[in-house]
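Page 47, continued from p. 46.
Same chain as before, 144 aa.
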Amino acid sequence: MEDDWMFRAMPWFFAGMGLLFAGIGLWMAKKELRGRRWNEVEGVIVDHNSHWDRDSDGHRTQMHTAVIEYRLPGMGLRRIDDSMATNSRRAVGSRMRVRYNPDNPHEAIVWAPLRMGCFLGLFTGIGSLFAAIGIAWIALGWGG
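Result:
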């Protein structure tokens, strides 16, 4: 009897988790792409913020977040931390694209749409696939 209940709950779990992941992926994509229409300036990596992190195996890894300096017209020099930490430092002096909100120049992001695009596409795509499987499972009554 207990196994029968778990089998009937599985399609709902698939659909619910799939919708949750697809929704989170779409929300993250919307947030990441908000700078699509913002103004762009060139930034330069001037420093790194470093911290120690543990991976899934418990090993410690030093992670680095680039500090990017850029100049806004009429506002002077500004700094922003990259949104992505890596285990290797990028070269100081490397160029980065920075986009800022013309309505609120204090709001700025490092512009690298392809960097997150693949991850967000997989996140949303796999979530949608799980949701479709769960919904089809429920609709077709495969669970008994």
